[in-house]
Amino acid sequence: MSVEQASRELLSPEEESALLPLRAKWEKELASLEHQLTALTNRKSELTRMLASLNGIIPPKDDGQGTVAGAPLPQRPASRTAPAVNPIPEQHQAGRGRKKFTAVGAYWLPTLQALVDLGGKARRDDVVELVGKKMQGVLTPDDHKMLPSGVEVRWKNRVAWQRENMKRLGLLRGDSPQGIWEITESGRQWLADVSSRRFFYTLAALRIGNLSGDQPHPVTMGGYRNFVRQYAQEFGDPTLGEADNHLLTDPMVLLWNQGCMELKKYDLARNLWWDFADLQDVRLLVGSGDWTIKLTPEGRALLAKLEDQDKLMNKKNAIGFHM
User: How do the domains of the chain map onto residue ranges?
Assistant: First the structure.
């Protein structure tokens, strides 16, 4: 005889009838608690992963630098003339012997482009995978290393954290289901605006690289800016020529990574030319002294493609190019 059968034999029909609503109430409450527990367990796992990743980026409290755990992630300060977020990837180097990481703002454009390519919304892993493909040649070896926490590769972690920043600015939806990323209309507009500026600065860099044909063309920062100002007038937006030096020159690192351009920097102290492959940081091209810029056959092919696109855009009076 089972316990349930023995219990029923001890209860009269009236008593059993009175206890049935209580059982139903407890069963409903138990089901509700189990549902809440599942949600809490998932949230706990998510927070554990996020905190472990954050601890891998932010130094501990006793690092001697005055940094405290839980402080905001460092962001690249916006210049007086450049957009708040640099659409062209840069490499960040804190100093000699320090690690090089791709700037966090460089993840925004490929993330939004990936979402558009995937239909406007997609699973987190699918978005991150596509972002990695779009940033091939831009991500540094240090970006591909595991965080000190051992939870995740650094560049994937940064993509996830920049998603949070883009949510706060309304570029991505904040109410998407867990694990789903979705671009907003504001995000699409931001992408269009940034893509048009990226198109311009890339086209300007290619034009400058083609000034001397098959020969390297010597440039200074002042001379480079003057060319950009001239092209900005033709482009219909003179303000593009007044941007920060780095915003003007950053497209060169992309073009070099893509094999479209050869770059060399003159070292006055040593009286020699450094190939960009030895410098690794386009920032070292900016400053005193000259550098040379020359297009490869791939660069000339890309220039022809962009010139045709520029003519089409002028004809339609609309910008719709996405690299």
Answer: 91-183, 195-316
> Can you give the pLDDT at residue 122?
95
For residue 43, with 0-12 CB atoms within 10 Å meaning exposed, 13-18 middle and 19 or more buried, which class applies?
exposed
Tokens at residue 135, please?
Answer: 């940033």
Backbone torsions φ then ψ of 54, nearest 5 degrees: -65, -40
The conformational region for residue 119 under phi > 0 = left, psi -120 to 50 = alpha, else beta, is left
Alpha carbon of residue 107 to chain centroid: 1
Report the distance separating Cα 216 and Cα 77, nearest Å: 34
Whether the pLDDT of residue 126 is over 80: the answer is yes
Q: Give ∠ CA 138-321-299 in degrees, rounded to 5.
A: 55
Structure tokens at 311: 């003519």
Residue type at position 11: L
CB 249 within 8 A of CB 285: yes
Q: Checking DSSP bridges between strand 180-182 and strand 217-219, what pairing results, if any?
A: unpaired
171-230 tens-digit pLDDT: 999 999 999 999 999 999 988 888 888 889 999 999 999 998 888 888 888 888 899 999
Beta-strand runs (E) in the chain: 91-93, 100-102, 121-123, 180-182, 217-219, 261-267, 272-275, 291-295
178 vs 89, residue with greater confidence = 178
The model's pTM is: 0.52
The helix/strand/coil state of 299 is: helix
Please give the single-letter amino acid code of residue 36: Q
In CATH terms, 195-316 corresponds, of 1.10.3720.10, 1.10.10.10, 3.30.450.40, 3.30.390.50, to 1.10.10.10
